[in-house]
Amino acid sequence: MRSKPFLTVAHRLAILAYIVVALFPLFWLLKVSVTPNDLLYSEGVRMWPSRATFEHYTFVIAHSAFPTFFKNSLIVAGSTAVAVTILASLAGYALSRFRFRAKYWIVALMLITQMFPLVMLVAPIFKMLSPLGLTNSLTGLIIVYTAFNVPFATFLMQSFFDGIPKDLEEAAMIDGATQFVAFRQIILPLTLPGIAATLGFVFTAAWSELLFALMLISGNDAATFPVGLLTFVSKFSVDFGQMMAAGILALIPACLFFLLIQRYLVQGLTAGAVKG
Amino acid sequence: MASIDIQDIRKSFGAFSVLHGVDLTIRDGEFIVLVGPSGCGKSTLLRMIAGLEDVTSGDIRIDGKRVNDLAPKDRDIAMVFQSYALYPHMSVADNMSYSLKLRRTAKEKIASAVGGAAAKLGLDPLLERRPRALSGGQRQRVAMGRAIVRQPKAFLFDEPLSNLDARLREQMRAEIKKLHGDLHATSIYVTHDQIEAMTLADRIVAMHAGVVQQVGTPLDLYDRPANLFVAGFIGSPGMNFFEGRYLVSGDHADLRLANGVTLPVPRRAGIESGATATLGIRPEHVVLDAHGALEAKVDLIEPTGFGIIMHVSIHDVPMKIFTLDRAMLDPGPAVRVDLPQERLHLFGTQGQRVE
Q: What is the percentage of chain B residues whose pLDDT exceeds 70?
């Protein structure tokens, strides 16, 4: 194919424009987080403050409850991601490989759970968790997040399993493996991209979830960081500098996590995409 | 090694029946080829022997032991898949040794088994590679290697050469035959390619629509096809057929075609005068003879290099002739042919062979 310089340039410019638009809020987050309080309202709109400072960061880490929020969020998001991925792998494999009665209805029911706006479910969920003593607890959050993420993750995993030829596990079974050993030793390693994609998807979803965390958690001890960010809003003012610093810190685990799995993710997302 | 005994095997998927009662006894060390068109049930039968499909009814015995309810891993058989089904995340050596590892075979034993199989198949330099770094033929070899390291009771092949190009297929076909000569392993080989069936088999099982049509040596099927299906399926180019009415007059018999032409046919006891019948003759058995009894209009000439396939028509009934005579590259508008009586096959109303 002959290259057309104009189209190439236009293409790159379009991508650049998209990246600028997408990343600008992040940049603003960073900018505000390093702006000293006295300059925040006095310098007008500037791309970078005349004097940068890390005082918000030191305050957030040393003097606020943020480390607790951060730890809680890590526990909740990490546990949810692992629990969902295990459940979704097993369920997705069953949907992909086994023929069983009522499969159609199970799939339909799982889809139905995805149809309701979460806001509608807050009250009943609170009502259910309250007598079990699971409100204001990380376990309660993990259970709720897991329940809400499993259906979609199951469909995601199913599409990855569908992409792996059945011949492979049949060969393994003839080689002397049980179906479970074939699943563990042959199919799972080949589904790593799918597992990484599911882990990443669920981790970020749980990491940034606000609604349920806000409704089910009261008090700082069990608060996750999205809830914790609200503590920077006081009756008469919002401490933007500290809030933004906390926000930047909260981004770090998500970024690290994606850095870790991105090798699998690139294959994984495309594989999932092709299978639809 | 073992014999395999199949008794009245049936298979249905829901209301859809795929195998209608198959009986087959495979002797120890025998090379059996299941051949037939797509959807005839040959792969299903193989997968039932492997334990990958449930048996709807009937019995499968391996070495005298009923295996209907045994998991594939407990049947001690090896299978080569059309897709090769190599484990993509394992090296060639790991692929080949996987079954032995699952059986907790000692390391030294595994090494010698893999080494032996690799040497036999010329895989030595490839042992550390991953399957994706191999060519189609090499992958095929690894799949075979994976089967032979185990020394199983039987080898099952599910169209193993279908994904290879023609040249490689020919080469691998010969290798499989040679390997069977070395190992004398009971083998069941599924293919839709009648050349593979003819060249490899000790006995061919020709299947159609879930029913075994004929079991016999390759030459049995070629020389004495049991019915129209086998006659048409075995041989290339395919057998010529003429449909008509079998009429006896005095001590000789004729086949009267729909357009009124009569062809002399041998008298056969198995068919009554007046019955509809089909006459068959292989293209390579039609004799070109300047004094032949029939005139054939030449429609098309297909040189194959080795010989020539002539498409002709006898009174508007199409027929093929295979000849080695290069003069036939330019035969003129018509040729004269004979249909030698001893080469004719006669099939009755139901398509069955008539003797």
A: 100
The full set of domains in chain B, from first to last, is 4-233 (3.40.50.300), 240-347 (no CATH)
Check CB contact under 8 Å for A176 and B103. Answer: yes
d(CA B150, CA B100): 7
Q: Inter-chain contact B99–A167, Cβ cutoff 8 Å?
A: no
Average the pLDDT over each of A234-248, B133-147, B277-291 and give the range with the smallest value: A234-248
pLDDT in tens, B25-73: 999 999 999 999 998 999 999 999 999 999 999 999 999 999 999 999 9
Task: Show which of residues 116-175 on chain B sit within 8 Å of chain A, judged by CB atoms.
Answer: 146, 150
Please confirm whether the linkage preceding B237 is cis (ω < 30° from 0).
yes
Is B301 an 8 Å CB contact of chain A?
Answer: no
The three-state (H, E, C) secondary structure of B134-164, written as one string = CCHHHHHHHHHHHHHCCCCCEEEEECCCCCC
- H/E stretch holding B76 reads none
Regions of chain A with pLDDT less than 50:
271-276
Measured between beta carbons, which residues in chain A are less than 8 angstroms from residue B89?
Answer: 189-190
Residue that has been written with the tokens 């004929």 in this structure: B214
Domains and CATH numbers, chain A: 1-53 (no CATH), 64-275 (1.10.3720.10)
pLDDT higher than 70, residue B243? yes
Average pLDDT over every residue of B219-230: 96
**ipTM field:** 0.85
The runs of H, that is alpha helices, within chain A are 5-33, 37-40, 55-63, 66-97, 103-113, 118-132, 138-162, 166-175, 179-182, 188-190, 192-207, 211-216, 225-229, 240-275
Give all strands of the β-sheet with B317-323 in edge-to-edge order: B287-288, B334-338, B294-303, B308-314, B317-323
B chain contacts of residue A186, beta-carbon cutoff 8 Å:
87
Spatial CA neighbour of A76 closest among A251, A248, A223? A223
Residue B94 scores a pLDDT above 90: yes
Kindly determine whether residue A190 and residue B102, on different chains, have CB atoms separated by under 8 Å: no
Whether residue B6 has pLDDT greater than 70: yes
